[in-house]
Amino acid sequence: MPTPTPNQERTAMLSGDYNSAEYSAEYKLLYLQGLVADKAYEAITEFLEKQSEYEIANLLESFPTQNRLLIWAQVPEHIKGEVLAELDVDTRQPLMENISSQEISLFTQDLDAQDISEILDTVTESVRTSVMATLDEETRVQVNKLDTYADWEVGSYMDPDIIQIRDDIYLADVQEWLRENDDLLDDESQELLVVDQSQQLLGLLSLVDLIKHKQNTLVSELIDTAITINDRLDIQDAAAIFRSEDIRFAPVINSHGELVGQLNGEDIMEIIQDDVDSTMKNLAGVSQDEELFAPILTSAKSRSVWLGINLCTALLAAAVIGQFEEVLAQVVALAILMPVVASMGGIAGSQTLTVVIRGMAMGQIGGSNRVWLLNKELWVGAINGIIWAIIMAFIAQLWFHDIKISAVIGFAIAINMTAANVSGISIPLMLKRMNIDPALSASVILTTVTDIVGFMSFLGLASVLIL
Q: TM spans, by residue (predicted)?
């Protein structure tokens, strides 16, 4: 089906003919905004019934808190549990404040252990106990297992409900079992996990082998090697393994080699997206917990810390400038050109910093390649510094007709851009060695370095060459 044009989307928006898969998220948001403004409750319910839990969650996160409550009241009951599991914690929390344990039990009765654990993370202990008592024994055990892991461990993200078979049975038995339980496999399943009598993971049995080999063949004869993930491994390291090995899922084992769950590609994609969001916020000096529609005071508070730190660094740079008050007072042109030096160094350093932090997140920087990268950035900074120094010196000469001022701005830009590139890689490496998240504070430190080096080189050279 061809993608609808904006005009078609507007027509559908007005008519209410909104197929879940056809129209863009933005136009769905605009349509729902119109319904909320009109308080058209029945129309909101009708619209939401056509959306998936992922789309409803995204729409809820696109409204301020007050409107979220209105929309949430119109979400169909049969999908509220799935929607809650897809929401960010900060969005989910207010929605659940007035939900009773009985309602939560109804929402979670058809959910898997992963989703239930996610939802119960935002309720009180008494509500949690009440809801847990309504779960069947198998699900309750799985939820409790997930809750034993720290937030950063693979175990807290794995699916404990896995399809496993023994190695000492025949293919005919496996096929018969799958036919009797036709809901076990989904459209993406291609392998079965094989264990021995003591739950030790032995490997994988592909569905292709299950079909093409003779039915009296033992499973143990067809086992393929599996790439496994330890349940206590950092989830970021697990994501790096998924990327490097190009796998869709991985069996999760404990320290004894026992199969305890399965880590799926979709969970890894969510982790990667969360990591990207976190890195973007940290680079901008915004709290990881701040969401787009957070209350005004919450957002102001979360940002004020880094604004304060930035003010301190700016005052430090100002103090450096203050040391050259005499030269600035005599040569007005220096005050005009001074921001250019800091700006060129800042952008050069930010380019390097962005590439390096991404490389760290992808697990691509470590060992001997750090020295190679440091040398590379030194030369990149020097080459770009010389090129733009010449260009800026030429512009300054046309502007002020003073060869000394042109020389000062040119040399200062070359020095600052070289230092900025080196700082762009050395600062995050240093912070990582100190167990500090580079994305959280590297940009502030880099700005301070480029400002101080830029002003020192520019005004210092001016003191020597002009006064």
A: 305-324, 330-357, 378-399, 405-431, 443-466
Residue-range definition of the domain harbouring residue 402: 294-464
Check residue 193 and report its DSSP letter.
Answer: E
What are the tens digits of pLDDT across the range 436-462?
878 767 888 898 899 999 999 999 998
Token code pair at residue 190: 């291609």
Cβ atoms 53, 78 nearer than 8 A: no
Residue type, 223: I
Residue 2 belongs to a domain: no
From the list 105, 48, 37, the residue with the least C-alpha distance to 72 is 48
Is residue 25 pLDDT above 80, yes or no?
Answer: no
End residue of a domain, out of 254, 282, 310:
282
CATH classification at residue 221: 3.10.580.10
Measured in whole angstroms, how far is the alpha carbon of residue 87 from the centre of its chain?
A: 15
Overall pTM surpassing 0.85 (yes/no): no
For residues 396 and 406, the answer to whether their CB atoms sit within 8 Å is yes
Q: What would the DSSP string read from start to end of 196-243?
A: -TT-BEEEEEEHHHHHHS-TT-BGGGGPBP---EETTSBHHHHHHHHH
